[in-house]
Predict the 3D structure of the following.
Amino acid sequence: MPRNKRSQPEIDASSMADIAFLLLVFWLSITTVLTVQGLPQKLEKEKVQQEVIEEQEQEINAQYLLVIQQKGSDICDKSNLNIQIEYAYVHDGVSGGALDKELREGASMVDEYGKDIVPRNQGRSIGKKIVWENVYTELEEAQLTQIKDAIANHIRKQEEEHIIQFKYKSDVCYQAYMTMFQTIEAAYEEVRNEKATEMFGLEWSYIKAKAKREEKTKEGNKPGGFREMESTIYKLVSTSKLSKQTID
């Protein structure tokens, strides 16, 4: 009787696809692509680009402009903020006491009674721009309140046309920067509260709190609801006119 032939052993290759996939993922995860790094070089602005920037600056300077400039400090302390608050207005070239008086009374740093909100130096003329400025070398709570009042008054007087530039040195410490930025935010909140009280007879903080809890309808904000009130106030007193700029 003939014997059965032995079956030859075979290698199981069913897991080779999984192994190949794992190897592919492994090499993709550890592979780095070399990038060629050039020499650092400061490129000069093109002439056309420079002209556009100058036109933008002239357009800004043609309106009432409030500039807050914050210098850097090695010591991160409120007493070393060194804030320069500047109010500029472009005039038509006419000089004299009458023009200066008119500009001073229309300035954001002057209240409705013509009294200076913050103490400042005599206005100086730079070309067709009259600039009044006040430099704080030391800031305490009273000075921050004065600056907040000047900013709030600027927003009230110029409304949608108001422009505020917040310039700060690149080496200014974070605490000093935040102190000044919170002062600007407090000014906006003060004016928003005035608008909310005037238009809806409610405090701004109350409207914001209620708007967070109010549900939206399918059409959007509920007509006459708190979200709609909040949106209305934000449109009237918007921070879109506030620009932040790092200076060397």
Observations:
- Residues 26 and 195 are 61 Å apart (CA to CA).
- The chain has one domain: 48-247.
- The chain has a mean pLDDT of 75.
- The radius of gyration is 31 Å.
